[in-house]
Structure formats: structure tokens, C-alpha cells
């Protein structure tokens, strides 16, 4: 919280560190935290800042080594104090993942976390959900892993992460056939719940 006009305009947060994590800044202002192998470790949504009257204050991130700096340009205008600016760090892309049965076959249910939804909306976020999100699901536990045993379920996951992310809970149903035509064909009709390998 920025209390008054005499407060600094730059606020530094140490995010990377000894483990070699690196910060990657995207054009929309969001930041990915990546391991030395390039694996997704977490991220920070695009910055925001509002004054006491609800007026947005210009703000952006800068990366300094393993630190993230949020610059809040409260000295560039007339604002009502205090000003609130709070970086939102997220790690888990899913709030929960469960396995049940549907049509007598396993169904894996995934609920995107608020962070996952915010991450999806950022530049590159769809790719993060489709790659790091799948890794998170696969490594959730052995029950989930054993429930994800069909190519169709990976195709359904890709459909949700790239084509239909705001469908609520993502249901990856084993009984659905493997696609022989890309899932994007007819997605407006099947909504990732196709019943044939090449149509809807």
C-alpha cells in the first residue's frame, strides 16, 4: 500500500534465487517463473494499481536478475491516497483434480484455479495451461495418472486449455473416441465433448 505522495515509486520483490529460477516478462506485463530447464514454476499476473477513489494508476513490472520490480507511477498524476498495488503470485493451475466414473469408464475432473484462469488470459497463458497444466495434472497423484490413460483425454485437455478454457470444470472422459480429425473441427458444437472421432 502506498500511503502518500512521498512514497517510493518502485517496489522490489525477490522471486528467483539460489535454485536458479528465472523471470520472463511478457508483453502484457505478466511474468513467468521458470526453472533452469525452462519448466514452468509459477507466475505473476499483469500488474495493477488503484487509488483510494478507484482510479487506475499507471504501473508496470521490470525484471532485475532474480527480482521483480513493480513501478507505480503515482508521481505522474493527482491521485487519492492510499494507493493499492499488490502483485499476484500463483503456482497451482488447478484448485482440485478428482477421478470418478462416467459411462462405466474413468473420468478425470479438473477445476482451474483462479490463478489458472488468470494465467490463461495472459499472453502465452494458453500454452502454459496446455503444457505445465498437463504436467500438473499428470503428477497430481497416482489415481489421476492412472485415469489419464487414453489419447482422447489428452486431446480433451488440449481442447479445454486452448479452445474452451472457461467451461467450468474440465471433464476428461475416457469413453470418448480418439480424434482422427483435429478437435478444433466442430468445437463450437462439441465443446470438447465429442462423440465421434471426426465430427461432433
From TrEMBL:
Origin species: Microbacterium rhizomatis
Protein name per Swiss-Prot or TrEMBL: DUF2599 domain-containing protein
Domain of life: Bacteria
